[in-house]
Amino acid sequence: MSKFYGPRRTDANFKERKMPVLKALLTGQPRAYGDERATQPLKRRWETAIFKQARAGEVRANELGFEGDAVADTLHHGGEEKAIFANSLQNYAAWERFLGLKNLAYGAMGENLTISGLHEQNVCIGDVHRIGSLVLQVSQPRKPCYKLSMRWGNAEMTAEIARSGLTGWYYRVLETGSCRAGDEIYVVERDPATISIMELNRLFYGDRLDEGLLAKFN
Fold it and tell me: Which of 59, 65, 142, 217 is 20 to 30 A away from residue 203, measured at CA?
């Protein structure tokens, strides 16, 4: 049976005691790493923008994401439906345990936004969030790829993210604007009948025959 962190979604999961906050905003450009002569898979040459840098001050975003940010693999990443990648600060403890590390820096999973107070259990497809003057809509979970294993030098990292359901999520941009680290995040709109990121991940990577979840698509 697949291992998922956290409970199934309940109404209580959506009641946050504190306003969600943007802890870090990060951007990056593609660069090449590794050695093209290497025989070990995790040491081979690869190109990625997963190593992002925290930005100070306001950063503007358009329909394709933040200024100063880009992707290496335009076939599988980027575009309007994957304009901005967000990850929950709550997930960091799980990855520190799995990797045997402490105090992972913001952006550890290659995210643009590290967020406190939102997570896979209480973020749903179609949710509309406002951060600064930027209005975003949750579009889909992030599908973990092999580059996460490359980034951490751990062959099991990508599979563990899928097993856990702690994938983070993508936003599409509804209204262009700007935001900065420290901004509060407002839930502008939510359909109470929609499906959470964690529930969708359970269908993708766990119990694909869960009739209760499948019924939500009817």
Answer: 65
- Cα–Cα distances in angstroms (integers) from residue 40 to residues 37, 154, 159, in the given order: 9, 12, 18
- Measure Cα distances from 4 to 15, 94, 96, 110 in Å: 21, 11, 16, 21
Q: What CATH number belongs to 18-217?
A: 2.40.33.20
Residues 6+ apart with CB under 8 A from 114: 22, 23, 24, 26, 86, 87, 88, 89, 106, 107
Q: What pLDDT, on the 0 to 100 scale, is given for residue 16? A: 44
Report the alpha-carbon distance of residue 99 to residue 1 in Å, rounded. Answer: 22
* Strand duo 169-175 + 84-88: pairing: antiparallel
Q: Helices 197-205 and 157-164: crossing angle, nearest 10°?
A: 120
Distance CA 115, CA 85 (A): 11
Q: Please list, in sequence order, all residues whose beta carbon lies within 8 angstroms of the beta carbon of residue 212, skipping any fewer than 6 positions away.
A: none
Where along the chain do its domains lie? 18-217
Whether residue 38 contacts residue 153, with contact meaning beta carbons closer than 8 Å, is answered with no
| Mean pLDDT on 102-108 | 96
With 70 as the cut, is the pLDDT of residue 73 above it? yes
Q: Look at residue 76 in the predicted model and tell me its pLDDT.
A: 87
